[in-house]
Amino acid sequence: MQKLPLNLLKRIEQRIQENSFREFSDTLNLSDFSSNDYLGFASSEVLFSKTYELLSEKKSLQNGATGSRLLSGNHFFFKPTEELISSFHETESALIFNSGYDANIGLFSSVPQKEDLILYDELVHASIRDGIKMSNAKAHKFLHNDLEDLRKKIFRKRELFNSAQIYIVTESVFSMDGDLPNLIALSNLAKEHKCLLIIDEAHATGVFGKKGQGLVQELKIQDTVFARIVTFGKALGCHGAAILGSKELKEYLINFSRSFIYTTALPPHSVACILEAYKSLETSNGTNSEVIKLQENIRFFKEETLKNGLNTYFIKSESAIHCCIIPGNETVKKLAAKIQANGFDIKAILSPTVPKGKERLRICLHSFNTKEDIQSLVKLLATFIK
């Protein structure tokens, strides 16, 4: 077998020297405060059983989709699932992609054109950045959640590119900080300047709203958003993603989004699981008990950090993601190891994933975390860092 080139080996060595080398860790049998399984759907026996029953009922015994959706892979489950997703999220259409990464690559590489301009929050996800890099449009970042900086950039770019279509891109919950932009003000700004707003709702779906519809719908601004990206590998406990928008946007993506066109579709059991997960969110009384439990745990965690004098260490967050800043890769890794040794699965987030000096413990809350575990975790954290 041929060896890795020397210049690549040097890059690995540099990562090791900087204490930022990534490698797989063993699955830990600890209290979960690290996964994105916010509602516990990923390990739900009920969801697993309902998916199996649906597959059996439809006599779907396929292991794979057999091809792209434009060839042989457009199996029975796609249509009802996309219809339920669009209805649940109060939008005209939904188009399922194989992952959130594929959705963002497909959207940003195909929709903004050469004469267009993309203004994106400096902390948007890597998948958005990669999609933007693949686009022919011009792109500029604005300061994180800074609407005044965005406004200045809109004025400046309008002077240079008078006829350009401007796309504004942000996340409703930022994956590494857990904080939220002012989406209402952002929506008004986009409307005022005739910009098209794109919002990634990966970490808001299943978390905000009485049924987990997301932050956009909780704020009732869905009619002002050009496109939303919802993913299923987090609160919904499945796999895949969907782009929400107009029927014309869906038709355009089917024809021009390369990450949709040139890939084998999700297999029947994956899409059936998505369908059943949405059915689990869609309840007759207008609320979902797991979503409500999660929201209660978020409030309780914030109360406990304040009570234990830790709130100044945390980035302000109303989401399920709470980040405790512990500067230095080595320092934060050691602290994570201590907490894991005490029974809690918490991960250290290192630079260069986050800026140097902003290394952190990323704590994810779930509907299934007990009040006792949350209290114990916060008290343990307080003894180690105060």
Automatic annotation (TrEMBL):
Keyword Glycosyltransferase (UniProt): no
GO terms, molecular function: pyridoxal phosphate binding; transaminase activity
Keyword Transferase: yes
Cofactor needs: pyridoxal 5'-phosphate
One Pfam assignment: Aminotran_1_2
Residue span(s) of domain Aminotransferase class I/classII large: 32-379
Alphabetized UniProt keyword annotations: Aminotransferase, Pyridoxal phosphate, Transferase
GO biological process entries: biotin biosynthetic process
Pathway entry: Lipid metabolism
Protein origin, superkingdom: Bacteria
Membership in a protein family: Belongs to the class-II pyridoxal-phosphate-dependent aminotransferase family. BioF subfamily.
Protein name, entry field: Aminotransferase class I and II
